[in-house]
Amino acid sequence: MLEIGVNTNNECGKDAKEVLTNIKKAGFENVMVAFKVGKAEETLKIATELGLKVPYVHLTNSNNLWSKGEENKSLMANLKEQIELTAKYKVPIAVLHATSGGADELALPPNEFGLNCVSELVAFAKKHKVKIALENLDQPSFKHFKYVMDNIDDKNLGFCYDAGHHQLYIPKIDLLQRYGNRILAIHLHDNLMDWTFGYDWTRDLHRLPFDGKIDYDKIIKNLAKTPYKNVVMLELHKDSCGEPRLYEKMANLDFLKEAKKRAEKLAEMLELARKSGK
Fold first, then answer.
1. Which helix (H) or strand (E) holds 42?
2. Rounded distance, CA 239 to CA 249, Å?
3. CA dihedral 93, 94, 99, 100 (to 10 degrees)
4. What angle do CA 220, 268, 259 make, to 5 degrees?
5. Three-state SS for 120?
6. Nearest 5 degrees, angle CA 178-CA 209-CA 20?
7. Which H or E run includes 145?
8. pLDDT average per 10 residues of sequence, the chain (278 residues)
9. Angle between helix 112-127 and helix 139-151 axes, rounded to 10 deg
10. Beta strands of 163-230 (E only): which ranges?
11. Burial group, residue 261, by CB count within 10 angstroms (0-12, 13-18, 19+)
């Protein structure tokens, strides 16, 4: 059976220690540590002490990759520190967004300066034996994602496939056919596939798989055609995303136990799809 995991910023505890303890109690073997919620090294340390494996981390993100100035310099320095921390704890993969997401005017159009910034990060990560996995985000950010993936031909830059984002924002684009040969990481979650263009991220629900409208039979069959053999990773937000909030009355540990069942089901589906070859 493929191993399963879940993100640390799943809102199932008051702090990193409680969240990670609940993840361990629920039976998960792996966690994706989200640096964007702070206290990254503390979280990595606690995960290690609990015997949890970290197959990849999630770096912070910003639109400032694409614009010159002090904010870009600060972002690049911060991301390099995060990559060094990733290497310190021997985590092999770091997930990166091309932008923060949102409407077009929130980020400059794709440009050579931003491309050079990503190339610099990829080279820096390679020196530290860390690979960068670029994640597909929302519709406005897709052109930045595509620009980077299509213009940096480096084995140290791969793809983090986010199934929820794909089906919510750009379902007509076959991301796995286009970039599946470079896949390094995955994020699996569910939503109602009802996004309309704008600033509103509340449609990105990050629900438990099978609690929304995403066709996971189709997703898994397409994923099975890729070389991905890493952890079946859920990326969930228990309480904060959108309405109705299905899990507010669930105890944190109960939510994570249910998440484990869903992850195991997806892992089983993926193994069966690979064996059948369909």
1. helix 40-49
2. 9
3. 130
4. 90
5. helix
6. 105
7. helix 139-151
8. 95 96 98 89 97 98 95 97 98 97 87 98 98 96 97 98 97 97 98 84 93 98 97 96 90 98 98 88
9. 60
10. 183-187
11. middle
Task: Pull the structure tokens for residue 270.
Answer: 């993926």
pLDDT score at 36:
77
Distance CA 19, CA 13 (A): 4
Q: What is the C-alpha to C-alpha distance for residues 224 and 226, in angstroms, rounded to an integer?
A: 5
Position of tokens 């990193």? Answer: 16
What pLDDT score does 278 carry? 62
CA–CA gap between residue 181 and residue 111 (Å, rounded):
25
Where in the chain are the domains? 4-276
pLDDT value at position 242? 82
- The listed CATH number (3.40.50.10490, 3.40.50.1980, 3.40.50.300, 3.20.20.150) that belongs to domain 4-276: 3.20.20.150
> Nearest to residue 268, comparing CAs of 198, 217, 202, 212?
217
201 vs 206: CA distance, rounded Å? 11
Q: Find the farthest-apart pair of alpha carbons in the chain and give their distance in angstroms, rounded.
A: 53
Q: Which of 171, 232, 245 is nearest to 202 (CA)?
A: 245
- Tokens, residue 158: 């791969």
Beta pairing partners, 162: 187
- Look-up of token digits 């109960």: 254
- Nearest CA to 245 out of 198, 278, 196, 207 is that of 207
Amino acid identity for residue 169 in this structure: Y
In what side-by-side order are the strands of the sheet with 56-58? 183-187, 157-162, 131-135, 93-97, 56-58, 30-34, 4-7, 232-234
Tokens of 233: 């990773």
State both tokens at 224. Answer: 């099975």
CB–CB of 210/190 below 8 Å? yes
